[in-house]
Each structure stands twice: as structure tokens, then as C-alpha cells.
Amino acid sequence: MKLSPGLLAESRESNINDPPNIEPVKQELTRIANAVHAAYHELPKDFGGHIHVGMGASGSATSKIDKFAEDVILKYLDDEEIELNVLSEEAGFIDRGAKSVLVVDPIDGTLNCTRGIPFFSVSLAIGKNKLSDCDFALVKSLSSGDTYFARRGGGAELNGHRIGVSKYDRNDAVFLMFDGVDAAPESERVKLMASRVRTMGCASLEMCLVAQGSAQAHYMNCANFKRMIRVIDIAASCLILREAGGEVVDLEGKKLEMEFNLQDRKNFLAYGDPRIKEMVLRG
Fold it and tell me: Are residues 141 and 178 both part of a single domain?
């Protein structure tokens, strides 16, 4: 199926509960993610995904597993004649003569993937120029196979079932947070607002956990600009969270906005309950 601008427009107008045959974009994103999932699980045990094979367009080292997953996606787009430009971690921006852009993180959580920690994903979003105009999003866990999907104005789902954020309760709150040597000092204060804190290492899935109500916030306050979040990491999960009733803001409290490029990096707070924003970002 050729994913043309006409099909994109048709799917924008459909409802999330409509039959699959009028959700062509969802189907195509699912096929792309499934291609990565299947190819990953066919890799030999001695693949050596951690090996660095070059430098990506983002300026960070390219691991063998990242290049492998990206190649699977690009080949699929070519084979199926999908009419989308691409912004991806390793290849950068690829102009394929389209009006919309597929924002790709082939492997989000690369360290988890290469260390055998089962918490990493493929992240896909379709938009025009920036975070706020993303229309479709899909995040698939490459370990569990769980698949999150959202369409702007159409709600969010996990494995075909509607999801929504949860309310904040200090005695039962789980916060997902960036931690380690580059964590900003303010992070220590935020930790005290939750009953439990987890550091998972895959922003797309962490934000999806907030979207489904399993956690109440995802907070990233990194003192090292080179380790701050990029649009490819969260373009899909940001739409999923917003469609699930949550929000993502920068650390000044403004709705998070990022251009479709690999240079922009930011810290952020993702939450389900607005009270969390008030507590975390106060004075």
C-alpha cells in the first residue's frame, strides 16, 4: 500500500474505533514497527549490536544495532514506496519528495538493548515540521511486543485498547526520572514527591507508561546538553501522552515544542496530573 498524502488526510478524519480498512496510516506504521521487531528477533546471538560502526547524523556514535534497525525501516519505505520524508538518528534528514516526515528512533534505549535489559523500542511519528504538528504516533516495545498508537484528536491506545493517565497520590506515585552523573541537582527534590522512583533508560516507553497511568510523571533534568532529549526520542510518545490526557512541558512550564532536526535538545517534564507540574516546577 502506498501511503500517499490522500491516505494521510483520510486517516486524520477517521475515529480511533473505526474498522482497520479506514486506518491506513496505523496499518502502515504497524507494519514498519513489526518489520523491525521481526528482524531484531531473527538476529544471531553473536550479532554484536554494541559495536560502534561510525558516527550518526546526530553527532553520537552509531551502534551496529541502531544502523541495523534503521536500515530495516528505510528498506521497507523504499520497497513499499511510502511517500514520506525521514528524520532518523543515524541517517539524519532524508528528502524523499514528500510533504510529511516520518520521525524515527530505530532503537530507543540502545544501551538497554545491547546490555540485555528488556526495555527498548522503535519509535515512529508522522508530522510536518515540529512536535506540535505530529498527526500519528506508534511506539513498539521490541522486547514485549506491546504497541502504543495515537492519532491527533483520536485518543491513545495500547494493543488496541484505550489508555489514559492517572491521578497523583503522594503515597502511591511512581516517577520515572533521568538519573546518574549528569542529573541536575534539582532532581533530588523531585524524587521526594514520589513514593517510588525508577530510571528506565528509554524515554519513549517511559512516557508511554505515564500515558497508560502506570507512572504519574517522567522528569528529565540533565546538566549535560549532549545527553538531553532529542525530538526523535519523544515525537511519538509525546503525542501518545497528550492523547491519553497528559502533557509534556519544558522546565519553564511551557508546552514542549521541538523542531524536526537533530540539533535541538531539551529537558522536560511529562505528567498526567496537572498538580505534578505545579509541584515540580514551582519557583
Answer: no
Cell of 166: 492517572
Measured over the CA atoms of residue 165, residue 194, residue 253 and residue 258, the dihedral's sign is negative
Do residues 35 and 130 share a domain?
A: yes
Task: Report the Cα–Cα distance between both ends of the chain, in Å, rounded.
Answer: 52
The reply to whether 100 falls in a domain is: yes
Name the domain boundary from 115, 130, 162.
162
Can you say whether residue 255 is alpha, beta or left, with left for phi > 0 and alpha for psi between -120 and 50 degrees? beta
Same domain membership, residue 178 and residue 152: no
Q: How far is CA 135 from the centre of its chain?
A: 14
Domain limits at 236? 174-280
Question: Read out DSSP for 171-204?
Answer: TT-EEEE--STTB-THHHHHHTTSSEEE--S-HH
Q: Please tell me whether residues 53 and 192 are part of one structural domain.
A: no
Nearest CA to 83 out of 103, 104, 97 is that of 97
The answer to the question of residue 167 being in a domain is no
Q: Is residue 168 part of a domain?
A: no
pLDDT tens for each residue of the chain, 283 residues long: 466 555 565 555 554 444 444 389 999 999 999 999 999 999 878 777 777 756 666 667 677 899 999 999 999 999 999 999 999 988 999 999 999 999 999 999 999 999 999 999 999 999 999 999 999 999 999 999 999 999 999 999 999 999 999 999 999 999 999 999 999 999 999 999 999 999 999 999 999 999 999 999 999 999 999 999 999 999 999 999 999 999 999 999 999 999 999 999 999 999 999 999 999 998 5
pTM of the model: 0.91
